[in-house]
Amino acid sequence: MSAARGARGAALAFLEETGRLAEFTRDLLAETAAFLASPRRSLRLDGGVLMDQLERIGTSSVPVVLVTALFTGMVLALQAGLTLEVKLKGVTQFMGRTVALPFLRELGPVLTGLIVAGRVGSAIAAELGTMAVTEQVDALKTLGTPPLRYLGVPRLLACVAMLPVLTALADVVGLFGGYVVASLVLGLPANVYWGDVPQMVTAGDFGSGLLKTAVFGAIIAVVCTYQGFGTTGGAEGVGRATTRAVVWSSILILVGDYFLTALMGLVL
Amino acid sequence: MIEVRGVHKAFGPMRVLRGVDLDVVDGETLVVLGSSGGGKSVLLKVIAGLLDPDAGAVRVDGRPRESLASLRGAGAPGTARFAYLFQGAALFDSLSVGDNVSFALRRRGGMDPGRLRAVAEERLAWVGLRGVHDKMPAELSGGMRKRVGLARAIAADPAFVLYDEPTTGLDPISSDAIADLILSLQARLGSTSIVVTHDMALAFKVGDRLCLLHEGRIHARAPREEFRALDDAVVQQFIHGRAQGPIQFL
Ligand SMILES: Nc1ncnc2c1ncn2[C@@H]1O[C@H](COP(=O)(O)OP(=O)(O)OP(=O)(O)O)[C@@H](O)[C@H]1O
Ligand SMILES: [Mg+2]
After folding, report:
1. Whole-prediction pTM value?
2. I want to staple B20 with a disulfide (CB 3.0 to 4.6 A). Which of A46, A68, B7, B140 is the partner?
3. Contact present, A213 and A163 (Cβ < 8 Å)
4. Which residue has the higher pLDDT, B136 or B241?
């Protein structure tokens, strides 16, 4: 009886929260559209803030993304090598596609999304959360600057712009990692590995991955700015908001990945 | 002119404001006294539009004041005329002191960097700070941060200034300098001010009128000299800072 009521309360709270997130998303997208359509003067005004975010979200994530991609490509090649050689008795000429297909379509985009969610999303939530609890967000309003425009829009644009770039880099490095293992560990000649890639892999495989990560970027920015702006309750609240931001953006990336893939399967 | 009418504000079960009525006429400085946790900061935020009241209304120059409660709100230029000194200063800690002070002017546009710097230096000098323009807020003491917050609030020549405890954390000499500053700003800008404070010296120096927020309402209000002499146990307890009396210290 009371368990049922508890479940009902939790469901209602969840729906309410979802509604608030939807409303926030709508507002943030509307502000972003207004920003992109706004006159040059205002673009110049916020240009510096945007550049700063591109740098913080993009450039500084490069090392960790590349290391992750390199080793993922390497382990993929190692696994593929073991399977193709031992279990399938020496069809190692298919190494190239065996690394490239899953990497370009899934691993590159999803891993990059998850890494950026952890690295950048947590920073966004913590920074905005601190600003919220120390009244800096209120201060912005009293100084005539809408917080969503000044803090939200640059982060959304930077995430959407930089995730595909990071993913493209990850793809290149991941395939290279696969090649290193294929040639050094398994002794596969370069032309066999690289020659096999274009046999099976199309520009669409590469492009669909990049398209997905643009959406992942939007998910990270929306969820993490939402959690940041909604922070209450001091330092502990900032910690809670940061955790929620990373957990929810990671979950939504994985769930979104499935449905985006299904959708693109229908369309393409 | 600011008119506060029947304002109620609760947070969950806690009814902080329970029907506040208040008028602030143009050019005057109104001091709001009240015990800690009594809702003075909440009242200032309702007046500035940062919080929407549950009931009642705030009118500025006869029109409903604009709500800044949403993240998109921040007022068209010309309507954002409330300068707000936050209790905790609320400096942007990713920006230098100078960029904090000139923030509103920079966002408004039309001033070159040299001019912005000159204005920021000038306002910092008004609050008694020199040589801090290029420092970061984290490098300042609490009292200095408070003064930078004040310099930032008044940088854009506001018509209304809301001060939340402008002298808390300052030594008596700096406090008196802030009191002088509030007076000179009022003379210079002709601004209308509300000052929330526990500092009796400040209250009686800058306040044209004083009022006491008690149990969610304006318990008493009077011009300065009359307020001091009010025959009211709560007011007298407050002015003389006694723990015994009608206000219970928990
Ligand atoms: N955003 C909020 N959410 C929940 N409760 C709040 C919020 N803001 C204020 N309160 C509560 O409202 C009450 C009044 O707070 P307020 O900050 O206005 O007090 P104050 O009179 O300014 O006190 P002080 O002199 O110590 O600054 C407090 O009990 C506080 O806990
Ligand atoms: Mg207060």
Report:
1. 0.91
2. B7
3. yes
4. B136
pLDDT at B80 over 60: no
Starting at the edge strand that comes first in sequence, how are the strands of the sheet with B82-85 ordered? B82-85, B160-164, B192-196, B29-34, B209-214, B217-223
Lining residues, ligand 1, CB within 6 Å: B 11, 14, 16, 34, 36-42, 87
Amino acid code (one letter) for B144: M
Contacts with A230 from chain B: Cβ below 8 Å: none
Which tokens is B130 given? 């020199």
**CATH 3.40.50.300-classified regions of chain B:** 1-74+160-166+192-250
pLDDT over threshold 70, residue B157? yes
CA distance A89 to chain B (A): 60
B30 touches A at CB < 8 Å: no
Interface residue B138 vs chain A (CB under 8 A): no
Q: Ligand 1 centroid vs B197 CA: distance in angstroms?
A: 14
CB A101 within 8 A of CB A200: yes
Chain A residues whose CB is inside 8 A of the B51 CB are none
* pLDDT score of B171: 86
Residue nearest to atom 8 of ligand 1 (CA): B42
Q: Which CATH number fits domain B1-74+160-166+192-250: 3.40.50.170, 3.40.50.300, 3.40.50.720, 3.40.710.10?
A: 3.40.50.300
Q: Which of A45, A127, A148 has its CB closest to that of B71? A: A148
10-residue block means of pLDDT along chain A (268 residues)?
A: 80 91 94 83 72 89 95 92 71 82 93 96 96 95 90 94 96 94 87 86 90 96 97 94 96 96 82
Q: How far apart are CA B235 and CA B167, in angstroms?
A: 21
